[in-house]
Amino acid sequence: MPAKSYLMLAAALFSSVFVSPVAAQLYTDCNPLNATCPSDPALGTSHMFNFNATPPENVFNLTAGTVEYDADTGAAFTMRKKGDSVTLTSNFYFFFGKTEVLLKAASGTGVISSIVWSSDVLDEVDWEFKGGNSTHAFSNYFGKGRQDWQNGGDHPVTGGVLDDYHNYTCVWTKEKLEWWLDGVLTRTLLPKNANNTDNYPQTPMKLSLGIWAGGDPDASQGTIDWAGGLVDYSEPHTMYVKSAFVEDYSSGKEYTYSDHSGTWESIKITSGNSTAYENINKVPEKSLSEKWNELPSSTKAGVYAAAGGVGAILLAGLIFYYFKQRRRGQQEAALAAQQLEQERVEMERFKRGGGDPDALAFDGAEYNSKSGMAATPYGMSDSPPGSSAGAPEKTWDPTGSSGAAAMPLLRDDTMNNYRDNPGSGPAPQIPAPTSTSPVNRSFSPSNAPGQTGSPGAR
Fold first, then answer.
1. Is 346 a catalytic residue?
2. Confidence band for 448, pLDDT divided at 50, 70 and 90
3. How far is CA 265 from CA 110, 172, 260, 410, in A?
4. What is the mean pLDDT of residues 133-162?
5. What CATH number does residue 82 fall under?
6. Given a cut of 60, is residue 454 above it in pLDDT?
7. Residue 262 Cα to chain centre, angstroms
8. Number of structural domains, the chain?
9. Is residue 195 in a domain?
10. Dihedral class, residue 74 (left if φ above 0, else alpha if ψ from -120 to 50, else beta)
């Protein structure tokens, strides 16, 4: 292997040991050092984000978990299991500027709480807090993604970073970069001291607030050592952020890289209001009560009058319906009373005629569904004709069982034979009519029962 290759491999291994974990997590969708990339949406203003409630819509992106908001403690970023890296990242960029974050770091060995600026070319500015080190905060920076483990520095924090909120501020211009702790200047970086300005952060930045596991077992040993040791995932670890003030020192709609140099001189500013500015200053839609209170007095009077007219019409309709139903009920009640009176008069008449209402009994015959015959009338002891008791005296018995003459049938087997074979055997005997009217007793084959059409040959 060539000597140059050995040197590059050694440099890579060295970097993997001493690389900042935060920088290792950063990425860019399009790096302007290598390609022509879309413009970055600008903040173009200053704003205080209070995290006692959800921030304005479309201003921050949430990744790798959830953030809980509380009026007293602010935003809670909680790591509950391996792989959690709860992070809020702004959808806007600022081009030189200032941030002030009121933060309480998460406890736990290997747990890192962080305030990070990052650009598309991987310029970076950090405040970091190691959960295993309760007394110090850690400042760092990178230029164009170049790893340099000598860029970081530890700073003592009065009262510690885990038990209370502290103000962590960065102020950034093209002349210098400053880290402030609770209003006290802690560190200053000049461009000439950052690889002769080449590694000086100088391109539009976005803000990220998040918690992550520097001591994850899958991380490199150098990262684990830097973080202080392995993370214990058996218990949750929470970072709290009450507020973040962000000020963009430039004003405009968006920032564009005009070349691939990655210098601040290459950044072009488009004038106008940014999307972030519009979202932050968007007036929330008013409630109905608020809209009503803003109406002129004359308009309110007109609405009241119209509502009163409609109410009067409805009331009149209800009154009309009420009286109509009441009249109908009275008519029905009167008709029922009239019917009752008629029945009473009829009953009185019946009583005056000597009738006994209690002795009333049904005097007709009741049909028997089983035999098809009439049952015994109420109040009678005789059995009806055809019953098992036999026919009453002097009544017609169609069965002949009582000795009475049975009525001859109009059609019997003789009639059937004659009908089917005319001329064979004696003619059936047909009873004489009881009427005195003349009867035509003549017979012709054409009138024979059961025949239609031509009689045919004989």
1. no
2. very low
3. 39, 15, 11, 132
4. 92
5. 2.60.120.200
6. no
7. 47
8. 1
9. yes
10. left
CB atoms closer than 10 angstroms to residue 134 = 15
Domain hosting 22: range is: 3-288
d(CA 270, CA 258): 12
- Distance from C-alpha of 124 to C-alpha of 145, rounded to nearest angstrom: 8
pLDDT over 80 (residue 410): no
Q: Is-catalytic flag, 235?
A: no
**Kind of pairing between the strands at 111-118 and 254-257:** unpaired
Cβ(384)–Cβ(376) below 8 Å? yes
**Which is nearest to 21 in space by CA: 120, 122, 181, 128?**
128
Rg (CA), the chain: 55
Catalytic residue among 57, 100, 124, 235: 124
CA dihedral 364→367→372→375, nearest 10 degrees, is -60
Task: Identify any residues that bridge with 79 across adjacent strands, giving them in sequence order.
Answer: 237
- Distance between CA atoms of 77 and 211, rounded to whole angstroms? 7
Detail the DSSP E strand segments found in 151-279.
153-156, 166-172, 177-181, 184-189, 206-213, 237-248, 254-257, 267-270
Would the pTM count as exceeding 0.90? no
Domain membership flag for residue 375: no
Check 128, 290, 332, 366 and give the catalytic one: 128
Q: How do beta strands 46-50 and 166-172 pair?
A: unpaired
Write out pLDDT tens, residues 93-134.
999 999 999 999 999 999 999 999 999 999 999 999 999 999
On whether residue 423 sits in a domain, the answer given is no
Contact assessment for residue 114 and residue 90, using Cβ atoms and an 8 Å cutoff: no
Per residue in 8-26, pLDDT tens?
Answer: 333 333 333 333 444 445 6
Structure tokens belonging to residue 423: 């001329």
Domain membership of residue 11 (yes or no) is yes
- Measure CA 238 to chain center: 31
The string over 341-377, giving b where at least 16 C-beta atoms fall within 10 Å of a residue's C-beta and e elsewhere, is eeeeeeeeeeeeeeeeeeeeeeeeeeeeeeeeeeeee
Task: Report the alpha-carbon distance of residue 375 to residue 178 in Å, rounded.
Answer: 120
Asked whether 283 and 290 are in contact (CB, 8 A), the reply is no
Residue 69's CB is within 10 A of a number of other CB atoms, namely 14
Q: What six digits make up the tokens of 179? A: 């880290």
The string over 257-269, giving b where at least 16 C-beta atoms fall within 10 Å of a residue's C-beta and e elsewhere, is: beeeebbbebbeb
Question: Rounded to whole angstroms, how far apart are CA atoms 126 and 146?
Answer: 14
